[in-house]
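ingest -> validate -> predict -> emit
validate: passed (alphabet ok, no gaps, 98 aa)
predict: started
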Amino acid sequence: MLSITMVSAQQKKAVFLHKQETMDAIGLDPEQQTKITALTKKSFADINKIRKDTELSDSEKKSKISKVYKKRQQDYEATLTADQLKKYNELKEAAKNQ
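emit:
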């Protein structure tokens, strides 16, 4: 008889600003939510375009994608008030420590 034992690994919970749960938790107003959603959609479109670019090497793609993520994060943070940014960073830190 074959016995299988499963060990559940603890999964860290990631905090994504473009998720409704996070936007609600830090108190984004509807205008901010619209802007965050637009920034997210644009960054995903940019990343897909980079991934499909056959002219780029894998390392060039990785570099360009990293720049898109960094730019999006800067734009996210520019959209938040100081208090919202503090709450967002606290959520991210709490998720890291889970």
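The chain is about 70% helix and 0% strand.
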